[in-house]
Every structure is written in structure tokens, then in C-alpha cells.
Specification:
100 residues; mainly alpha
Length: 100
């Protein structure tokens, strides 16, 4: 999770999507629990995160949710999943229109 925070901070301070985005996309694949934080940053990035479009679309069309676990789930899982989906939709909208 420290990698995600560092990449997000880099983006927020410098606006260097070319450096932050590859780190965020790698973390997306490596740590499903970091996806909400990553999606939030991608939504902030807007058009600068355009290379993440396929990743976001894939998440939105998954049948099995990112936080699904064998043997059950908790009520907080629903909230986190809904938050992720909302942020993914916001990121796509910002990529398309370039505004928040």
C-alpha cells in the first residue's frame, strides 16, 4: 500500500502521470485491496490516466467482485465494492470529458 500512496503523492505534487500511472497499474494487479485508493487517484488524474481505461472497464464488467473471498464476506465488503465501482465510473467519465 505504501507504493500506492507514494505514486498518488507523486501525482498530486508533480502531476507526473507518466511516472505514477505505471506504478498504480502494477499495484492494481498485485493488490486487489488497494483498488479503491488507486481508482480514486485515477479519477483525479482524468485524461492523464487514459492508459488505465481498459483496466477500469475490465473491473466494471467483472462478475466476481474484487473483494470476494472464499467462505463468505462482511457487510463492509459491499460498501468498498460500491465505492470502487463509483470511482471507476468517475475515472472513465473524467477521461472522456477531461473535467471532474
Amino acid at each position: 500500500m505504501g507504493t500506492v500512496r507514494s505514486a498518488t503523492a507523486l501525482w498530486r505534487v508533480s502531476g507526473r502521470a507518466d511516472e505514477a500511472l505505471p506504478v498504480l497499474l502494477a499495484a492494481w494487479e498485485e493488490n486487489r485491496h488497494a483498488r479503491v485508493d488507486i481508482a480514486e487517484c485515477l479519477a483525479e488524474m482524468g485524461p492523464a490516466a487514459r492508459d488505465a481505461q481498459l483496466t477500469i472497464l475490465t473491473e466494471l464488467t467483472r462478475r466476481r467482485r474484487h473483494n470476494a473471498r472464499e467462505g463468505g464476506s462482511g457487510s463492509h465488503d459491499i460498501h468498498q465494492d460500491e465505492k470502487l465501482l463509483t470511482l471507476c465510473r468517475a475515472a472513465l467519465a473524467r477521461m472522456e470529458r477531461g473535467a471532474f
